[in-house]
């Protein structure tokens, strides 16, 4: 059973029960006790929750997993989480040497490396190329339509991909093998200026899309380099997010990566947030866009305030996706004993948030006090500088 700081859900013989003070009652079943244990604020919502609010949580553990010879991939898109219209996510594993096939798609692709290392390649419309290696905490961003590949190195890798359209599907990308096997061989011959017989060994029907397939682990990065007459891409497609100096507060850290420090990421902005046990990502909202969240480690809970007296609380742990519609107020509290680490993602070129505390501190105090009858202790605790984790 998870710790929760405010709700008073009862346990009987270690089983959580939907009881809140004098309200509710036991649940004799049928029921899914492990799932109830992971979602204590759904089973027994805080008294402040009210109204009908769409679901804002979906776990990669509930997403169809596509298993292939070189690894696996699963996605959380608007099909799994209908409210998530702005961004979609893919969680992918590449075994040592495993290749995510050369491909492109209509959406920009942003990625965060969760485990291991990968080699990534791309070529832009001017014939400028890109090749790099990324490890834990590194990012890449491939603009929409730009062809690219990913390959797991010695220890393989696992990463999160984020696309700037909630309706993206990882199953609808443009694969190089798919195009070859759906083009007449005479046309291939004409295109490449060789005999049609040269294409006799293309992948056959049964495996006409390689998608994720095994290849020997490549040699050193330098041995893989191809020189382009047009030179390399002018703006690198990779970025060391975890190496950024974070904003530090007493309760944790925040690293913000957007087009201001990673120019290639022109449509997706991100914040990597670490919240220590007992601390909280402060009450805030985003003035420009919806927020798509990915939980990397630890556990937390979030209440989303939707106006009109409506609010709903969700619990999260590693591998979960959360979502906050544009402008809705929220906080994220660490409810565990370890660091809570998650990503806040936005379909935007810039990260932006509005702090409730800072707003109140920078507004005439008599005006603020007239609204809420706040005590001097509360008024004195307001701070004019933003403290994202408290
Ligand atoms: Mn891609
Ligand atoms: Mn937020």
Number of E strands: 27
The total domain count is 4
Our count of helices gives 8
The largest sheet, given as strand count, sense and whether it forms a barrel, is:
11 strands, antiparallel
Hetero groups in this structure are: manganese (II) ion
What is CATH's topology name of the largest domain?
Jelly Rolls
Counting helices, strands and paired strands, the structural category is mainly beta
Strand content: 35-45%
Average pLDDT figure: 95
Terminal residue distance: 25 Å
CATH class of the largest domain, anyone? Mainly Beta
Shape: globular
**Assembly category:** single chain
Q: Considering the protein shown, what is the CATH homologous superfamily of the largest domain? A: Jelly Rolls
Low-confidence stretches: 1-7
Report on the structure:
- With 390 residues, this protein is mostly beta strands.
- The chain folds into four domains: 10-47, no CATH class; 61-239, Jelly Rolls (Sandwich), CATH 2.60.120.10; 240-354, Jelly Rolls (Sandwich), CATH 2.60.120.10; 355-390, no CATH class.
- Helices cover 12% and strands 38% of the residues.
- The protein has eight helices and 27 strands.
- Strands 6, 7, 8, 9, 10, 11, 12, 13, 14, 15 and 16 form an eleven-stranded antiparallel sheet that branches. Strands 5-24-21-26-19-18-17 form a seven-stranded antiparallel sheet, with no helix packed on it.
- It is globular, with a radius of gyration of 24 Å.
- It starts with 9 loop residues before the first strand and ends in a 9-residue tail after the last helix.
- The model is unreliable at 1-7 (pLDDT under 50).
- The structure holds manganese (II) ion (2 copies).
- One manganese (II) ion binds next to loops.
